[in-house]
Amino acid sequence: MKNRFLPFALGMTLASSAAFGVSGGGSPVDGIVPVTRYVEPNYPVSLTFETIYEGFAEVCFVVGPDGKLQESFVREYSHPAFAAEVEQTLKQWEFQPVPEGQPQLPRRYLLRFNFQRQGVVSVSGPQMDAVLNTLATYNEASFVRISKLRDLDRIPDLVTLVVPKYPAAMVEKRTPGSAVISFYIDETGTVRVATIVESSGPVFAMAALDAVRQWRFAAPTRRQRPVRVFAVQEFVFTADLPTAQGKMRKED
Questions:
Q1: Does a structural domain hold residue 2?
Q2: Which residue range(s) make up the domain with 22?
Q3: Does a structural domain hold residue 3?
Q4: Residue range 112-124, pLDDT digits in tens
Q5: How does DSSP assign the chain, residue by residue?
Q6: pLDDT digits (tens, 9 = 90+) for 219-239
């Protein structure tokens, strides 16, 4: 199996740190984030006496079918203090479990929080570039961004590979299957917030997801500096083979 990866675009809705109405991105259930307890992030106290007046943090998080937060990953941010505030606040949120009768699969969501020292602002559409350009004038050295695979020095080597096995529950039926998994690779080569993009059935989805969560890569680099990158992998299961066959999804 060739271990090749290409980016897969995630949909998102922008949210302020005061109010939010957001949709899931790259998850098997697209829709409003099912929050039952919401705690609002605050402007970081540590930045009060610095010349930083606004910023942002964009977080991906995985919610299990039981409504428990499984993992969070602040994928982009303008300053580490904003990232820390969002991640700490997210731990206090509570979520609605997946209703009975629906596939009991984990869901991943993507939220963006925009901070201002005096009040908050929510932006969307064409305004986004203007806001980011403004933020860049404050402390560009602190920015962390997601890179594209084509911009890396090289495709990161897969150091630890776990191949999804054909589900035992399907052996007797000899049912073919497929699954698409998207995930992030952080600066250390660790797989973060992997989720199911699509699949032909829950057993194939979980077989692929469980395997990818165990993968580990050499640290991805851009211009010789460690970066984080978004990737996607497709799997095809056939009853004649004990493990799935992997293939890359072409870049958008």
A1: no
A2: 13-146
A3: no
A4: 999 988 754 444 4
A5: -----B--PPP-EEEESS----B--SSSS-SB--EEE-------GGGTTSS--EEEEEEEEEE-TTS-EEEEEEEEESSHHHHHHHHHHHTT-EEPPPPTTS----EEEEEEEEEESSSB----TTHHHHHHHHHHHHHGGG-B-EEPGGGSSSPPPEEE--PPBPPGGGTTTT--EEEEEEEEE-TTSBEEEEEEEEESSHHHHHHHHHHHTT-EEPPPEETTEE-EEEEEEEEEE-TTSSBPEEEEPPP-
A6: 999 999 999 999 999 999 999
